[in-house]
UniProtKB/TrEMBL annotation:
This is Glycosyl transferase, WecB/TagA/CpsF family. The keyword Plastid does not apply. Keywords: Glycosyltransferase, Transferase. It comes from the Bacteria. The chain holds residues 3 to 194 of 244 of the full protein. The gene is rffM. The keyword Transferase applies. It comes from Gloeomargarita lithophora Alchichica-D10. One of its GO terms (molecular function) is hexosyltransferase activity.
């Protein structure tokens, strides 16, 4: 079922009853997807940054995130749509099995600790790999090669806004069957 779309300052917000269910299906079926969790700060950044704006407009799923965007939706629509990015990705990771996951970003060791956290919560989770987000151009080429080789079905990218969104759009063709999500500070939260 394609999501219905509402627009905020030229940016789409997709309205779905169950975001986690939709994402789980995309991962299961290997349907290439870029997910943006859109909060008020990103709406403001996009107004100043045409590259970010274009990425958001082209993402297959733009999830309302944060109280600002949720409040705006309440004004425009009947329902309440609240899907904080970290909860959404947590719901997918908690039940995933058989399909490999990759964590890219965060300070050195943050990704490894986040992976450890998830291995404990979901013993069936398959971690394809973890790479920190402070890479040189040569290391970036290695990361790209690793992703290309492993084809993880779910790739979480924590490089901060807007870099993570733009990085995903630039590289998503190397894993055309993957679901790519810009997760901001989520790895730090799981790392504790
Ligand atoms: N980050 C990174 N490489 C960078 C910049 C940021 O890996 O060059 C990571 C940072 O360590 C953190 C995450 O990106 O885990 C989110 O960064 P930040 O909180 O600055 O961005 P925001 O989510 O607030 O946009």
């Amino acid at each position: 079922i394609p999501p219905s779309v509402l627009t905020i300052q030229g940016l789409p917000i997709h309205l779905l009853a169950d975001y986690a269910q939709w994402l789980r299906e995309r991962v299961e079926q290997g349907q290439g997807t870029q997910v943006v969790t859109l909060n008020a700060e990103m709406v403001m950044q996009a107004a100043q940054n045409p590259s970010l704006k274009a990425v958001i407009q082209q993402a297959e799923l733009v999830v309302p995130d944060g109280v600002g965007v949720t409040w705006y939706l309440k004004l425009r629509r009947r329902g309440t749509y609240h899907a904080p990015g970290i909860d959404l990705v947590s719901q997918v990771l908690a039940h995933l099995q058989g399909k490999a996951v990759f964590f890219l970003g965060g300070a050195p060791e943050v990704g490894e600790r986040a992976a450890q956290y998830w291995r404990q919560r979901n013993p069936n989770l398959v971690m394809a790999g973890v790479r920190h987000g402070y890479f040189s151009p040569a290391e970036e080429a290695e990361i790209v090669a690793q992703l290309q080789r492993q084809q993880p079905r779910l790739i979480l990218v924590a490089l901060g806004v807007p870099r993570q969104e733009i990085w995903i759009q630039k590289h998503r063709h190397i894993c055309p069957q993957s679901v790519w999500v810009g997760v901001g500070g989520s790895l730090d939260i799981w790392a504790g």
